[in-house]
Amino acid sequence: MTQPFDKFYIYNLEQINSMKKVVILLLLVVCFFSCSVENEPKQHYEIVKVENFIVPDTFSFRQMHEIKLYYKRPTSCHAFNGFYFDQYENVRNIGIQCIVSNTTACQNLNEEAYEVSFEFYANSLQTYLFRFYKGKDEEGNAIFESVEIPVKY
């Protein structure tokens, strides 16, 4: 003799198992369609050369000093995105960081140089060596123009 709830219990287990299958199938479909074949990013970063710069002849210890840089955008897809700044002890490597749109609609530019600047705080009495990025040579090595700036107390 069977209990009155046996069929109900079996029916619910069958329904739950079929629902599990549907959920798993839906998850697989969502995972499959959420993957994109386009893996290329829409933009990337690039360091462009410093065309020219203006620095003070000397720094005053514990004072802020403006440093002006001039750069040109190589293409219409380049946009200023800040400064590349690398330091080791009193050596500073500086370049212009651009964000570049990955599109085929870029046009080469021959425009006037843009002026950008930043403030530098001289917190050491030692002479600073600023190396401004000037591009790459034929072998792909970075080229820098260097200037030493002494610090007075």
Structural class comes to: alpha+beta
How is the main sheet built? 5 strands, mixed
* Outline: elongated
In what range is the share of β-strand residues? Answer: 35-45%
Give the low-pLDDT segments: none
Secondary-structure element string: HEEEEEEEEEE
Number of strands: 10
> What oligomeric state do these chains adopt?
single chain
Mean pLDDT: 85
- N→C terminal distance: 103 Å
Cα-based radius of gyration, to the nearest Å = 30 Å
The number of helical segments is 1
Percent range of helical residues: 10-25%
Explained architecture:
The protein has 153 residues and is α+β, with helices and mostly antiparallel strands. 19% of the residues lie in helices and 44% in strands. The protein is built from one helix and ten strands. The protein has one helix spanning 6-34; strands spanning 43-48, 52-54, 59-60, 64-71, 78-88, 91-101, 114-121, 128-136, 142-149, 151-152. It is elongated and about 85 Å long.
Structure in a nutshell:
A hairpin with a 2-residue loop joins β5 and β6.
Compile the SSE list and pairings.
Elements: H1 6-34, E1 43-48, E2 52-54, E3 59-60, E4 64-71, E5 78-88, E6 91-101, E7 114-121, E8 128-136, E9 142-149, E10 151-152
Features:
3-stranded antiparallel β-sheet, 153 residues, alpha+beta, elongated
